[in-house]
């Protein structure tokens, strides 16, 4: 049976430095209305950078 999206949509995170889409995750739409920003490791920059939610 497929998962229901509901309040936890699947989002893609893109690096702010190299603009590549590196991560896929889910977020709670009730708690996080705005686009989220997380500090994650970028393989291409070889360091931790800020990753923003893309559409």
Explain the overall architecture.
The chain is mainly β and 55 residues long. It has one domain (10-54): Rubrerythrin, domain 2 (Single Sheet). 0% of the residues lie in helices and 47% in strands. The chain has no helices and four strands. It has strands at residues 10-15, 21-26, 37-42, 47-54. It has a four-stranded antiparallel sheet with strand order 2-1-4-3, with no helix packed on it. It starts with 9 loop residues before the first strand and ends with a strand.
Keywords:
Rubrerythrin, domain 2, single chain, 47% strand, 0% helix, 55 residues
Named CATH topology: Rubrerythrin, domain 2
Number of strands: 4
User: What's the architecture in CATH terms?
Assistant: Single Sheet
Mean pLDDT: 91
Radius of gyration: 12 Å
The CATH first-level class comes to: Mainly Beta
CATH homologous superfamily placement = Ribosomal protein L33
The shape is elongated
**Distance between the amino and carboxyl termini:** 25 Å
Which structural class best describes the helix and strand composition?
Answer: mainly beta
Oligomer: single chain
Strand order of the largest sheet: 2-1-4-3
